[in-house]
Amino acid sequence: MRVFVTGATGFVGSAVVQDLLAAGHQVLGLARSDASAATLAATGAEVHRGDLEDLDSLRAGATQAEGVIHTGFVHDFTRFAEMCALDARVIAALGNALAGSNRPLVITSGTALVSPGQLAVETTRVGPHTHHPRAASEQAADAAQAIGVNTRVVRLSPSVHGAGDHGFVPLLINLAREKGCAGYIGEGQNQWSAVHRLDAARLYRLALERGETGARYHGVGEQAIAFRDIATAIGKGLDLPVTPQPPEHFGWFGGFAGLDCPASSELTQAQLGWKPEHPGLLADLDPAGSYFSA
């Protein structure tokens, strides 16, 4: 299959590209800059110039492909709602290019918005009643399906970890360095799910190859890690104290640090034959590992 991949040089998207190529697919990857284009070409993928705000470039890329995997997202979490609204427009543009063709469109969402405080499962829908900003992506996928697009949704855990991570865990590590302690909120018993980026990459490919229209699949390797355990691993890696802190300690990240969002991937594993194989988050946070080499 010739697959158009957005976010093709990003942390998750670059792993998706490698997994697709290794499985024998052709990849047309979105590249915004000359440097990204060179990086992408070096992997053996074709380059399609454009960016997430150039909707015409997205439609053109999707038109050239037999399937689309959308991993791109503008990771400006200080403007999170705005970036989620942009993602909905991106999904609509990709959907318009694929409508009525049966070519699959795999989009990205998150497990954390599904059912906070309860174990999130694949059968729970994120509908128009859900006001979390990230819900816009799934709502856009549903709107695309309504016009004849073969959509599938991969919901990622709040921690997608591994070498090269520049997401939430490095943010927490940098904050601990800055503040002189690794913090958690309350008793730190709120739970996060997690998945290794290489396991997530394989999930995207399987969702493309084997997924069903409208299905939700969970990128969850570990379904419930206490946030205090994450903070403890960070404290150990930096040789810093681990202490309870108010939400204000985390700045704009305070809402994320307090999330209680365990999630299951039981149905995903059964339906797609996907099984996480790579190290878990706490194992990846070993003091000798890549997270603490800088």
Description:
The chain contains eleven helices and twelve strands. It has 294 residues and is α/β, with parallel strands linked by helices. Helix 3 runs parallel beside helix 4 and helix 4 packs parallel to helix 5. The model has no long low-confidence stretch (mean pLDDT 95).
Task: Set out the fold topology.
Blueprint: E1 2-6, H1 11-22, E2 26-31, H2 34-42, E3 46-49, H3 55-63, E4 67-70, H4 80-98, E5 104-110, H5 135-146, E6 150-156, E7 159-161, H6 168-179, E8 182-184, E9 191-196, H7 197-210, E10 216-219, E11 222-226, H8 227-238, E12 242-244, H9 254-257, H10 266-272, H11 281-284
Parallel strand pairs: 1-2, 1-4, 2-3, 4-5, 5-6, 6-10, 7-9, 8-12
Antiparallel strand pairs: 9-11
Helix pairs in contact: 1-7, 3-4, 4-5, 6-8
